[in-house]
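Q: What structure does this chain adopt?
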Amino acid sequence: MTDALDALDRRLILALSTNARASGAQLAAELGVAESTVSNRLRKLASSNVISGSHAEVNLAELGIPLQALIAVRLVRHARADIDAFRTEAPTWPGVVSLLHMAGSDDYLLHVAARDSHELRDFVLTYLTGHPAVSHTETNLIFEHVRATGWHQIVEPGE
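A:
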């Protein structure tokens, strides 16, 4: 699909990445096109999975969940059943923000949020160290998360 994206599609994607709540009228004004054009382009981008949703960025610390960590996970073996089971279970565990399947020495990275270090420790002991598919974990605390825009440079339409 990326080959079929033109400069307008790319500008629309960048505008949405800045403000996913922008109305069709706002996007049309920003891009200098008709609102119907924006609607048609959004439908096309969604149906081709270029855009798979819009989400609120939640400040977990403001909700009383100030501690976040990335937990590297290595599986015992790379049998499809173990991979599928872990991938299905892990996103449903309390505190899991996201799950990334990795190449390299670690198989997964879990982004986890917790109220305090005790809750984080309990998460690791309850869900990871006792899991039959898990052989090793390494927990790294997140001090700060900065939303990046460097990917915009790759997406931006050519001149």
